[in-house]
């Protein structure tokens, strides 16, 4: 079966592209393909901000990605550099930097670009949204 890496650079403020990405990932898995990572980079890291309130008129994309990861066991990896620049940090980083709060919650995980490229090397294909 082909192994695919998915790169998310679209912002949650572009909900149509984001829903397309989720639907595409579900479709791949249902067809028997393997997704070895979903990597959030650039504006895509906003999907991992657990403190955003989607409100009643917007889609809760972080929650949808979390449900997807729980259902399919696909790792949701977030570029630590891109996330930090946008104020998205995990509990460990908050503790290291003396911040009182963090905004990145499981199943999202902060990793460096090296992790992305290592997993990409093991994939047959890269798809970007």
From TrEMBL:
The keyword Membrane is annotated on this UniProt entry: no
Top-level taxon of the source organism: Bacteria
Coarse class of the protein's main subcellular location: cytoplasm
Coiled coil: none
Keywords tagged on the record: Cytoplasm, Transferase
Family: Belongs to the DsrE/TusD family.
UniProt-recorded name of the protein: Sulfurtransferase complex subunit TusD
Organism: Alteromonas gilva
Primary gene name: tusD
